[in-house]
Write a structure and sequence with these properties.
Length: 130
């Protein structure tokens, strides 16, 4: 009997967690701006789950005596991480984060911009050489 009660508690809690967290929580509904740019929100979801129970009769329960106690809990955290910006054939990720605290963090943030500039410079040199 106690095992069945614990299973019920766990099943109910997990179904509630499933109701809260679905794929639309992680990859949000696309937003289209008036100038045709589509923004897709991306979030990070973390959650924890715990359940437990005890049979006070230590397996000696009678038909009329049920001394089971149990409980469960769950917690979730949803944090926006980035937006995917879709403009024509181009897709870019726009991070949503706190400003970099160290020089190394700032340098890492600048890598995509540097790559774009180098790519543009190479394209211009190839065009000029033709």
């Amino acid at each position: 009997m106690a095992g069945q009660n614990l299973n019920d508690i766990m099943s109910t809690t997990m179904s509630k967690v499933k109701d809260i967290i679905d794929v639309n929580t992680i990859v949000g509904t696309p937003i289209t701006t008036p100038d045709g740019i589509m923004l897709i929100p991306i979030s990070k979801v973390t959650f924890g789950f715990a359940a437990g129970g005890a049979d006070a009769n230590q397996g000696k329960s009678t038909e009329n005596s049920v001394n089971f106690g149990g409980g469960s809990g769950a917690g979730a955290s949803i944090v926006p991480v980035a937006f995917l910006m879709v403009q024509g054939e181009s897709v870019k990720m726009i991070p949503v984060a706190t400003p970099a605290n160290t020089t190394v963090d700032r340098a890492i943030e600048l890598v995509p911009q540097v790559i774009d500039r180098v790519d543009d410079m190479i394209k211009r040199k190839k065009k000029d050489a033709e």
